[in-house]
Every structure is written in C-alpha cells, then in structure tokens.
Amino acid sequence: MAVRTVLEWLNSCSGCEIAILNIGEALVPLLTRHLELVHAPILMDHKYLGQRGDGTEFNIPEAEVGLVSGGVATVEHLQVLLQMREKCRILIALGTCATHGGIPALMNGQDRKEGWEGVFQTRTTDPGCSVPDVEVPAPLDRVYACDEKVEIDLFLPGCPPNPALIAEVLMAVVEDRDPVLPHKSVCDTCPVIREGKGAVSVVRRFLVNAEFLAEDPIDRMRCLLEQGFMCMGPVTAAGCAGGGLPRCIAARVPCRGCFGPVRRDGNQMLDMMNALASNGSDFKSVVDRRSLLRFSGAHGGLRPLRRKSAAERG
Amino acid sequence: MGTVINIAPITRIEGHAKIAIHLDDQGNVRDTFLHIQSLRGFEKFVEGRPAEEIPRIVTRICGICPWMHHLAANKAVDAAFGVTPPPAGHLLREICQLFAHITDKILHFFFLAAPDFILGPDADYSVRNVMGIVKAEPELAARVVKMRQLGQMMLERLAGKAIHPVAGVVGGFSRPMLEAERQELLRDAETLLDFSCYALDFAKDTVFTRYKDVISELGAITTGFLGTVDRDDGSLRLYDGRQRLMKADSSCIDFEGDRYADHIGEHVEPWSYGKMPYAKSWQEGFSLDPAAPAGIYRSNTLARINVCEKISTPKAQAELEEFRGVFGRPAQQTLLYHYTRLIELIYVCERAVELLQREDVTDTRIRAAAEPRAGRGVGIVEAPRGTLIHDYTTDSNGCITKANLIVGTTHNIGPMNMSVRRAATSLIKGGVYDAGLLNKVEMAVRAYDP
Fold it and tell me: What average pLDDT does range B318-332 have in this prediction?
C-alpha cells in the first residue's frame, strides 16, 4: 500500500522541493509506487477550498506522513502548519528553514515595521507606496521554526537537505523503521588536511580563493579554517556530503552552516566564537558576527539590535 | 452581492499565490486578482552583511533558480568592489548559468506544465500531474527525469552544490575546470542538446498543433517586452548584454543595466506582496486594464525571443525563423511562452556545447582578488523567468548599506493579472463553470512559469 503523503511549503524558496526531485533514479518509484501524494502544491492540483474554489473550510487531506518546508512567518503559514499537524500522523520538518528558521529568519534581526516599509520604498518603487494589507496574509511578529508552533516528529535540516537523506527518511516511513541519519559535524565528514591549532590569529574574509592545486583531490587541500578563512564546519551538522565530500568544500569554498547547529538546540554563533577562541583566533576580527546565525535565527537566536539612545550616540 | 471563486493555492508553479475571481449577480466576472502571498524581506536583511557573502545568501530567494540570483549578485558585487573577473571566471559562471537554464526548462515544461497538455486540461486533478505522466507515458517520463537529473549532476560536478550554489565568488569562480571534466561535461551537454531537439519536436507534434485554438486565445493580451541582447549584433544573450525594452508596436529602447532605474518603476497594489515593475520611461503611467494597458511589458522566454534580432547558434536560429514565420514579431499569445521556452532550451544546450569546446575554459586564472570598498554595483542576468536585477551599495568596509532587487518573475505579475482577467472573463459566463475550466485559468498563469 502506498503511503498517503502531503507536501507543503511555508516561508520557503522551493529548494527543498527541488532536492526531492534530485533524488534521481529512485524518484519515479518513490512518487508513483511507495508514496501517494494527496496534496502537494508544487506538483499537483489539490486545492484548500475545494476544486471548484467555493468551499468555506480550509482543508488539507489526512495522510500518514507530512513534509513541511519553510519557517512560519505569516498567519497563513500558521494555518497550514496547524492543519498539517492535525491531519498527518508523522510530521517531518524538511530543510533548515523549517528546523531553524533558515535564511529568511535573518529578518528576525531587523526592526520589522521599518523593514517591511523599506521593502516597498526602494530606488524603483513609486513614491508613497506602503505595505500591502488587503487579502494578503499578515506577517507574524517574527519568523518561527516549525517546532516553535507544533510538535515535530522528525527533523531533516539542510539548505537544501541532502536528496539521499530525504529518500532515506521517506523509505524508512514506507518500511516502518527508524531512519539512519548523520549526527556528526561537517568537519567530521571533511577529508581536508588538518595540521593543528594556533596558526591563525585573524579571520579572513573570502576575497581570494583558497590555496590548492587544481589537479589535487580535496584530501590534499589544507583545512580552510587553518588557511585563515571563516569556515563553520566545526559547528554545523553533517549531512550535506555527496560522494563523501561536504558540498561547499567540494567547490573549495568554506562552509557557512546551512545544516544548522550540530546539536539541534546549539547556537552556531556562540559555538563558532568558542571554536575560534580555543584556536587562538581573535573572534573580534570576524566581520558581521550575527550572520553566523544566518541559518538559525529562529528560536530567539536573532533579535533586532537595540537602538542606541541619543546619549549613547553622542 | 456576487460570489468569489478562490483558486488557492495556484499549483504547479514555484511560489505562493492565489487567484480570486469575483462574480457579479448574473454570475459573470466582475473582477479578478492574482494575490502574491509571499513576503520575506531580502532587500532589508542583506543590509549590514559583507557584500562578498551576499551571493550565497540571496540564492534563497528562489530554490528553482538560485544560480541566477547567485550570478546577478556576484556581478553586482564585482561592480561595487571594482573588480573584473578573468575571462575563465566569467566562462565558468556562464556555463553554470546555462546548465541551470537547461534543468529549469525541462522541469517547467515536463513536470509542471505538460500535464495540462498531455493528460488534458479537464483531466481529474488527481491524475493531472507528473505522476500521471509517468503512468500515461512511462518512457517519456523516464527520459525526462534522467535528463533533468543529468543537468543537476553536471552542476554538482563542476560547482559542488547545485541547489543554492557557492562557486561563483566576487572576482570570478572558486575552482577551475579540469580537462577531464571538460570532456565529460561536453559529452553530457551534447546528450542534452539531442534531448532538447527531441523535446521541441515532441511539443510541436503533441501540444502546439493539438492545442492551436487554446494557444491563440487563452489569456491573450497585448504588451511590450523586456530582454537582454548582444551589444554588437542584438542576438539573444543570457549572461551579459544590453537591456532592450520593446513596445507592442515593436519599437525598442536599449539601455545599459546600470541605468535600469531610469526605465523601470515598481507599482504596488494593496492586494499583493509582489511589486509590479512597469516601463516608467514610456511615461504612460501604470494600468492593468487588458483593453488599455499602460506601462506593461513582459519578461521570460517569449519576451527574450521577441526582443532579439537573432540567435547565435544554428539550431535555435532555425527554430526562431520558423516561429517568427508563423507568429510574427512580437508574438503576443501567452501560451507561446511554452514554445519559446523550448526554443531557448535548444539555444542554451548549443551555447553550453560551444563554450565547453573552448580551450580557455580550463584556464586556471579564474579569480581576481577583491578589496572591500564603498561603491555601488548593478548586476543583471537573464533568469529563466526574466531580467534579474541586483543593485547593491556598500560602505567603506564593503558591507551592504542599500539593496534593490527586481526579480525575474515580478515583471510578469502585472501581465499575469491581465491574462487571468482575460481567461476568466472569456470562460466563466452566467455563473457556469467547473474544475477543468478553473484549471484553464491557471494554465494562463502557468505559461509564465512564475
């Protein structure tokens, strides 16, 4: 029997849904044999208010499993999430926006009123534009991760999540077993050469390429943190690796933490500052430390900066 | 008081939107609205971030076309920091853009749009989708899934990360292409070129001829067009070129990207979070009235095919000539977006093959060193959904102080509203409608691939 499945997306970009499509060969049997999609806006036409658009009750069908991507940022996101919790036996938070807020939770570090107004008052908007408020879902006071609003049964972070792990989680549901998921850090899965602590006093911005020989495989390149770049591998959950390599490292680019903290309730900024300090690096040399929480700004991680008083401003 | 029909959510599109069709007491269409539901604040929350980090933040505007935001942002930051990437840096970026266009077009046509044509607009919603295509046309479906996957894996091999990429960097690219990789990618690009020719032939046989009437009528409107063309010969360009704004009477203004704000304004309606760009430089204001639109132009494939003088690659050029012979220039029928999308698919495959045949693509000089500084930069690429504009101002520490983004899809928000109005008005009379008919209204939106 195919497993009835619902897909939904909230404050999201559809990268998680593209990651599902990137499952590859297993995709066709998954979508047509193992799972029965009963509601999935990106792929099929089930509607909230009936197929004739004249219903009055918001409805998502009952299902064995629900996958929800994106954080919760508007009243409509909340309505969809609550409905999914009610209708799905197993609710899976898919992707870092759903598990930790993700990039859109950077908005939590802004003054929201001023922020929304600014979006509609740019170099090119007509003079006098204001924030739309008719028939559009009102924003909540901040961006929430899904588990701040409902109970989540399984967390699958990643920006995007690894297609192989999405397939593993779904097949685990189909086969009624526990999924096998990684629980180490990106560093633990990274094959670069590490020579030891203490070499770096100042953290460099990524304005020149890493040092490596083009023909050399990754395991002949020196650790990017040891090369002096900010690399968040030590404080980021593993899981991105394809073919045994963390994906950004495969591009010879440092990690920015897109799978969220290693422990689900960890704080990537504080953990990274600790890692740098214990390495003898001056954490004050990191420009824009708050953006170390760029993937995990929900759960109260990012808040608007306190405005300086007139006296403080001098 | 009349009733309201809600198409919520609009499905098989990339994004959050709904359609509200307001009927009068006689059951005829009084008004329609396409409400864009998503508000995330990228322009605001990039402020204060180091500019070189922006290309790996703004990717999350869209998970279907993250490469486009990645590259437009890289170009904008190059300009703000005053750094010029070496030729191979630009080539590697453009190759990634082409691969991304390839998978995007396969995804849109076959996974999202084709169910309406292959299974029929009136087929039951439970089968009118890609799973239905797998059952109805298993061989076709298997090939399509394989080709799309191939494109995504080519991106991963070259750039590490296909979704939300990181390999484009201020000043160029993060790693060179090895000769062995070049040869493999070239072989794969040739495979995709074969498939692209097959895809257009398939669509001509099974879609464009069979649905001729639907194509000429559904959601048809008359507008101008915006795209990017080669600075010298006016041919189709996606990575770099000059912007061309064409009026419905086919007269054109060309401008350099950094002058975009002289030509494009953004109108805001209280019922949609999506800003609506319009042609400010036409000085006719803004109106969505399908009978007398003002300032309205369209972007995406139909627009690019309309504004270009020619296409620089032979197979796509032959298709362009055939297309123009039948539909003229500019072609206005909304559902021709699908046709032009597949012509462009051939172009991007041919162009990928062309670039992968160049020896200098494996040059190891791929990045120029950048220094943070105060400046302003505008970066533009053609995203699958239209001309994508990133505009950043930086402070002396190279951090963002101001950002303005005009995203490809948004150019078409006004036109989509007009097409919905047209489709709904012609299809719903005297309160008589069914689910299949509402799907046809959605098809007028899907053509734009929003």
Answer: 98
